[in-house]
Amino acid sequence: MDSAQLFTFATIAYLAAMVLYISYLVFRKEGVGKAASFTTYAGLALQTVALAMRWIESYQMGIGRAPLSNLYESLVFFTWCTVLIYVIVEWKYKIRAFGAFVMPVAFLALAFINVAGISTDISPLVPALKSNWLFYHVLLSFISYATFGVAFAVSLIYLLQDTDERGSSVNLFAALGIFALLVVLGYVLTASGMKVPFWIGLGVLAVAWFTYLVMKGALNKPLVYLFITLCSTLALGLLVFMGIDYLVFSMQGQPAGEGFRKHMFESTFISRSIPVVAVSWAALFSLFALIWSQGLRIKALLKQFMPAQDILDDLTYRLIAFGWPLFTAGGLVMGAIWANSAWGTYWGWDPKETWSLITWFIYSIYLHGRYVRGWRGTQTTIISLIGFLSVIFTYLGVNLVLSGLHSYGGMN
Amino acid sequence: MEKQEQQGMVEVVADKIWKFFSSVKLAVVLLIILAVVSVIGTVIQQNQAPEEYLKEYSLTTIQLFENLGFFDLYHTWWFVLLLLLFTANLTICTLERFPYAWKAMRAPLKPLEDDGFKAVPFKKEIVVKGGMEAAETTALKALHGKRYSHQLTKEQGMTHLAAQKGAYSRMGVYVTHLSIILIFVGALIGAFFGFKGFLNLPEGEASSVVYLRNEPLWDQIMDGFGISKSPVIHDPRGGVPAMPLGFYVRTDDFEVDYYANAGRPTGMPSEFWSLLSVYDLRQQKVLEKRIRVNDPLTRNGITFYQSSYGTIPNAVGKIVLNVNQKNSPGPGETIVVMPGSSVYVKSIDRTIKAVGMAPFGMRDPATGQVQYYQARNEELINPTVELEVYRGKSLAYRTQVMKVDSGEPSMPENYRISYIDYWGARYTGLQVTKDPGVWIVYAGFILLCVGPLVAFFGSHRKLWVRIQERKGQAAVLVGGSSNRNRIAFEREFNSIVETIAK
User: Best exposed site among A107, A240, B13, B483 by fewest CB in 10 Å?
Assistant: First the structure.
C-alpha cells in the first residue's frame, strides 16, 4: 500500500464524517455524533500515516524532502491541519455540530485535487525552493490557514444565528432583479470586449457592499440575511455547476485537469446554446429563492444545537488571535527573508506576496475592529468570513488565475 | 477672551490633526483602503511592455490606467502616500496609548480593599484550617508555583498578598507597531540609498558596472538639484543606466547540475552555481566565492545573487579535458582545445582533436552507442565531445567523452581522457542589489515575529489574596483579573484556590 491509496481512504473517511455530522445535525442522535467524531479521528490517523509515508517515499526515490512543496502536498497538509484544529476545538468545547461546517471544507479541499487533476507526483525541487525556509514558511502558513478556515466555519454559524429577520419578499425580488441585471450586463460587456472593466466594477461593487455591511450591517438585519443567502447560493451553486462541468467532461472521455480548468462553465453559464445558459441562470436564481425562503428554518434547527453567539464570537477571536501571529511570522516574515536570500528583494509586490498582505490587512482589520465602538459581533464576523475568502484566493486563486513568482505552486 | 481664541486656533487645529491620526477607526479605514487598492495591482499585470498591455486592453483603457499609475501601482506617489499615512497613524496611535500601557505595566502592586474585591471578575472565599501563618505559607507557595511575583503587606489581624505576572505582555502590541514603523523606515532607506540591478556575465569576463532597474532616489534628487553628481552612467542612446561598482567582478566558472533519472540527466536543473572573483581597481584579487541560488556573495554592501543563466548565441567555448594514466593516483594533465582543432599532449605522445561538441549526448550503456538529443535553449544538459586521437599523423582511434556517462567511453590505450568543462560559451545571470536599509527591516521582522506572540499568547494576570483571622482559622479571600484569555485564567485561578484550600 502506498501513500496515495491511504490518502484516498482518508478522503473517503472525511466524506463519511461530513455526511455523519450533517445527519447528526438533522436527526440529533448522540450515536450518530459519536460515529462522526470517530470517523474523523480515523481519517486523521490515516492521513497522518499517509503524510509520513509520502515523506519516506520521497527519500526512497532519492529526492528526500518534506511533503510540503507542491500544490497537491499543500492541499493535503492544509486538510490535515484543518481537521486537527477542528478535533482540538471539538474536544475542548465539546460541541460536535461544528463538524457539519468544517468537514465539508476538508473534504472539498481533497476532492478538488481529483476534480482539478492536480499532479500527485513526488517531483524534485527547483533550485530556488532548496532552502531551509521552505519547511517553516509552508508549515506555519498552512497551520494559520487552517486556523482561519475553522474560524470561518465558526463565523458562518454565528452569522446563521444572526438571521432573525429576513424582511418582506420585496427584498428577495429586488435582490434577484439586481442579480439578473448584473448578469445581463456581464454578458453584454464581455461580448463588447469590456470584460476586465466589468470584473473590476463588480469587484468594487462587492467591496462597497462588504464595507457597508461591516459598517452598518448590524442595523439592517434583512440585508445581512440577503448577504448570507447570496454567499450560500454562490458557494453551493458554483460547486454544483462545476460538478456538472466535471460530469460532462468525464462523459466526453476527456481527461480532467488542464482541459477542465480552461473550459470551466462551458457546459452551463458560457455554453454556446442560449437555452442552456438561460436554464443555468434560472436554476441558480431558484436556488437563491429556495435558500432565502428556507433560511429561517435552517437557523431554527441550528439554534437548538449551537452555542450562544457570544461563545462563537469569542472562539472566532481566539482562533484568529492564534492564527494571525503564525501567519505574520511564517507567511509574511519568513517568506520575505527567504525571498531576500534568494533574489535580493524582501518584498517585490508579486501577486502572491500582495495577496498574503491583503489577507494580513483583513485579519488586522478584524483584530482592530474589536476596538472600534460597537463593532463586535456581526461586523467583525463578516470580516472573518472575508478574511478566509482572501486566504483561499491567496492560496489557490493567485496560482490559478494570476501569475507570479510562486507559479511553481501550480497544478502540474 | 481674544487671546484664548488666538491660541485656540493653532491648538484646535493641532489637536484635531492629532485626534484624527490617533483613532483606531482611521487605522481600520486605511487598512481597508490599502487592501482594496492592492487588489488592483494584482489583477492588472505590473510593469509589462506596452505590447503586452495592447493585447489585453483598449487604447483608452491603457491611457486611463497609465494616468492613474495602475501599471506600476505600488510605486505611485499616492500609494506611497497611503503607506505614509498608515505609518503616521500607527505612530501617533502608539504614542497616544503607550504611556497608559507603560503605567499599567509598571504600576506597583497594591493590596485590594473591599470595593476592589467587589469589582474583580473572579473571586472566591475559603476557610483554611491551621491559622494565618499556615494559610500565608500555602498561598505564597501556590502563587510561586504559578510563577507570580508578589508583594506582602500586613495590618492587624489581616495579611494582604498582591501578585501579578505577564505584565510585559502589555508591550506586545507596541512592539508590533514599532516593528512596522521600522520596516517602513528600512524600506525608505533602501529606496533612497540602495539600488537594484542585474548583470549577465559570460564565463571568463569581468565587469566594473551593473545595469540598474532603479537608481537610488538620493542620487536622483541630489543630481536634480545640482548638489552632487550621480555616479550612475547614463547611456546617451537611451540604454539601461549603469552603476559603477568600485571593483571588478569576474565569472571564473559557471555550472549547472541536472536531476538524473536512472543515471540519465532529465534536463531539469537541480542546482546552478557561479564561481565569482572580486578584484579591486588595481586588479588585485580580494575575494572569491561559489554562489548558488539562496547563497549570494557580498562585497562593500553590494550583493550578487545567482538568478539565471543562458548560452551566448554563436559563441564558441573551450573544451577542457583531463588526460591521466590508467590506475594512476595522480591528478593527470589538463588540456584545453577549441572545437575543431587539435592539441599535442606530450605526456602520452598523442595529438587529440576535438571534432565536435554537442550540448546533449547520451550513451546507451548496453551498446555503447551515443545518441544526441535536442536541448532547449542550447542548454548544456550533458555536453559530449567527439574526439580523434592521432599517433603522429595517423588516426589511432575515435571516441566520445561526456559530462555524465552512463556507459564506458572507449579508451583502447593505457591512459584515459575525461571531460571536465566546456568553458566560455555561457553567461551567468546575476541579480545585484545594495540595500543599506535591510538590517533595519530585519530588526523590524524580528520584532514583528515577537510582538504578536507576546501580545496574543501572553496576558497580564493579577491576583489578590486577603487572609483574615476568624475563630482560630484563616478566612482567605482570593480575587483575580486578566486583561486577556479569561478562560485560561479562570482555570489557573481555580487551581490556585484549590491549592490554598488543601
Answer: B13
